[in-house]
Amino acid sequence: MLDLQSGKPSSLGGIRFLELLEKDEMAFDNLYCVAFQIMDAQWLAKRASYMEFNDVLKSTRAQLERELKLEDVSCVQDLPAYNLLHR
Question: What is the pTM of this model?
């Protein structure tokens, strides 16, 4: 999702994530949890079945990328979706 396998991501979301990771070694763990919460929320909102998994995964990726591109995000906890962890 973040284009990290290349060593140097080309996507803005991947670049921003590496910046967050430099500041906080728990950034990956926290983003992983946020991603699953986003996916779960979208899965339930769409009333998806396993046939829609790829659609839900694409929309999860799009939301993560949008949130990582926000200018006021300086850590994973600043992501709007981070609030999903505290429901």
Answer: 0.84
